[in-house]
Input
Amino acid sequence: MTEFKNSFGAKSILNTAEGHVEYFSLSKLADSGFTGIDRLPFSIKILLENLVRNEDGNVITTDTIKNMAGWKTDASVCHEVPFMPARILLQDFTGVPSLVDMAGMREAAKRMQINPAKINPNIPVELIVDHSVQVDSFGSKKSFEYNVEKEFERNFERYTFLRWGQKNFKNFKVVPPATGIIHQVNLEYLARVIFVKNNNGQRMAFPDTLIGLDSHTTMINGIGVLGWGVGGIEAEAVMLGSPYYLLTPQVTGFKLTGNLPEGTTATDLVLTITELLRKKGVVGKFVEFFGPGVNALSLEDRATIANMAPEYGATMGFFPVDDETINYLRLTGRPENVIALIETYCKEQGLFSTKTMKCPVFNETIHFDMSTIEPSMAGPRRPQERISLSKIKKTFLNDFKVAPSTDNSSAEHFTLGHGSVVIASITSCTNTSNPNVLIGAGLLAKKAVERGLSVKPWVKTSFAPGSKAAINYLKAAELMPYLEALNFHLVAYGCTTCIGNSGPLSKPVTDAVKDHDLVVASVISGNRNFEGRISPLTRANFLASPALIIAFAISGKVTIDFDKEPIASDNNGKPVYLREIWPSTEEIKNTVKRVVRPEMYRKAYENAFEGSNQWKILPIPEGMLFDWDPKSTYIKKPPFLKDVTKTIPELQDIKGARILALLGDNVTTDHISPAGAIPVDSPAGAYLIDQGLTPAEFNSFGSRRGNHEIMLRGTFGNIRLKNKLVPGIDGGWTVFLPDGQKMTIYEAAMKYQKEATPLIVIAGENYGTGSSRDWAAKGTYLMGVKAVIAESFERIHRSNLICMGILPLQFKQGENHKSSGLNGTEIYEIAGIENKFEPLKELTVCAQEKAGKKTEFQVIARIDSPAELNYYRHGGILAYVLRTLNPEL
Output
């Protein structure tokens, strides 16, 4: 059991209806001489409590606590913070490879004479299977059953592996398929808000905190729980007892005032906030929402805003616990004794926000009036590209420089053109946790059907809600028949389209798009619309509210101005405008109030960890060490620890390196990490064919993340990647140097490895934005890349590179590869690594051209903390954890 040092005498007793519980009191800490604790941001208070409670005199010392207790608005005051989250949240795309790594670590531990049982989660780990279902069938009452059947058929090996993990790892639970989307399940069911844990025979209460293997873990910030997304390799270290290290956070206060105008939704609000904060610049910061406008938002609206923190660049977007939080806990069926303890603890601890309490102090404050919101979308390539709904037509035509499509269709025949909508999907955690937007979509569907409107025949529709509770209240409101009349049948409880599992389009649509090089669109209620993600056929991808998804499915095109043009014509040929069928705010609220009940949520989660019969009958492999099947194309023994010994390797300068890819700005993890369908004509496709599989058996890259051979072959393989070494050619291509032969990036990397040539990637600004994909770093590592030089990095990806032993280097302000005169064909050396290497050290890069000319420039090693330097010295975090485990345990 944990021993608490309690150097500041903060341990206290909290009286609850169910007896006494211990807790570490921030007010008692203040009595020790710390001033201003009551005015700290709520998020900083939670971090402070975390440090006080976990003080061990080694990793967390009195100085660590003093530094956080003395948090200042002066951003120059920065310290390393060892954060000990209460739990870890996984989804299956990122969770399976993490479990594969854990299984691999057990074997490596045995080889290093360490007890393999030590490789076991020290804190609760919960994995939700939600990323593997694909929209194969749609527009039918049988679609859900068909898609689930295909899901189990495709993912048999992965799911049996998860069953093995559930049996053999302590503190590890799995929420089986067809239950819901990870972040909605977390919000509606898993979130504790306040943890109560037995410690040395005494109950201890403390704030629920977590890290998750999905960047949208931040959705839980809407309910007052501190948490954000991290890389899989970092999470594995935390599972084994190491802290998650961050630097003292800067906190931006975001003051909300006013109310949402009639005709707008929480989706419009979050897209506007995303645009505003991206321009302001909050990358790596906490954003904490406050002000009278917060009181006007439902908990689900807050969760919508918190969900998209990765899109606006923040580490998280936090809403403290208040009366609305308590109301939501009651609405979602949490037990009354649990709710009472949460309220008592938060009020006693100063973590309960009220209208009368003084505003916290922040590093900076932004003011925003919600009454200025207008109907909006985002796209066609990034979530921060907000567009007023009235300008979508003009924006699309100007962006792609094409002529608009014409509406020429019947039930049997249709004509596609530029701007045709071919995918319309109500999915994603962002919106399907929100009864207001789903009920609004259902009411719009009802009005549309009553006017005789229908969805265009070329549109692939889908409805994949985040939990069974959503279907429960839509049925109670008698709205499902209208959604189904417009082909928005239930297809899955999972992420589906938002993560690239949109499934194939019909052959006529596919042929038309390819034969005529059409720029067609997808519209989804998700949070991701990066290039190549939704479908390889949709070059324009837009985010919008669920109601607007239905509107675009009816119109069949994005080249429409809903203010001026009718959405369609009714049965009598009379034009129908969107404003005529758009439900009022009052109508939506009254319906939500009438139909949404706690028993709907209790019913949705009554057997959350049991799963269907399909799940229960899966075989469970035996043994503490996993028995790797050499024939498996889903689960392979990971290669990352095969050469690890007890000796820490010496740091070395990088010499004789070549450039694998020369990239521009805004290269996302979607460009780097393979996702979506596996192309037949790709290195990964060729590998699977060599294994005896047919293209119909390929499944997706995400489902095969437990096989490094496939993921390696798909790294840097996105069809929209632009490598400047091969100008004018999109996709995963490069040239092998020095002969200049064109080949795939995978083929070149393997050829360089045979010649023992280290590799470098050069990029522009915002390198690695996107989901927290560990394979964006793992694949880069397996290709032999030793360093990435970029103008700036996204937080999670920079950390993941270090955790794989790859050095992230940043050009000095105002410099880039062009200013340095580089064309990517040079031979590179990076000096200063092996001599007194320290965080943020300036290193010298020397690039030598074929003619002998040398160019030198300085870069900054973006190893920001001593902990990160430790990981890099060990060659990555997995090796670090193995070497620091106690061999006697």
Remarks:
- The CA atoms of residues 821 and 855 lie 8 Å apart.
- The longest helix spans residues 92-111.
